[in-house]
Amino acid sequence: MRSFIAAWLAGALMALGITLSGMIDPVKVVNFLNLRGHWDPTLLLVMVSAFLTYSVGYWLSRRRQRPLWHERFHLPEKHQIDRPLVLGALLFGVGWGLVGYCPGPALAALGGLQAGTLLFVATMLLGFSLAKRWPLTRRN
Length: 140
Known about the structure:
Blueprint: H1 2-20, H2 26-33, H3 42-61, H4 83-99, H5 103-108, H6 115-133
Helix pairs in contact: 2-4
């Protein structure tokens, strides 16, 4: 139960942060990617803040035997760049660039009940389901 509470609190904190920073607005993301037009650097500030926060958290986690509310840390086990990673990154990046949403901000924006957000989340969930049934790459 403690790990569920910790995960919920972390998700709620992230949702609050991306909402307060305006990152649930897909126009801000598209403007960040628009280097020739009205470029908006606020996403860069959010990314740098996230990187610094993650770096401190990772550094602190390496000094502990185990997390506070779980049996073990769940760190990545794969360290090589392979076809599934590249295909997934490309698909994610193209989708993010076309629509201006990635999964976290889209879920945080659900409370606004905007038609575009609802459609994005529905198709994202459909994509997750299809990827589990028909993976594009072999899984090891």
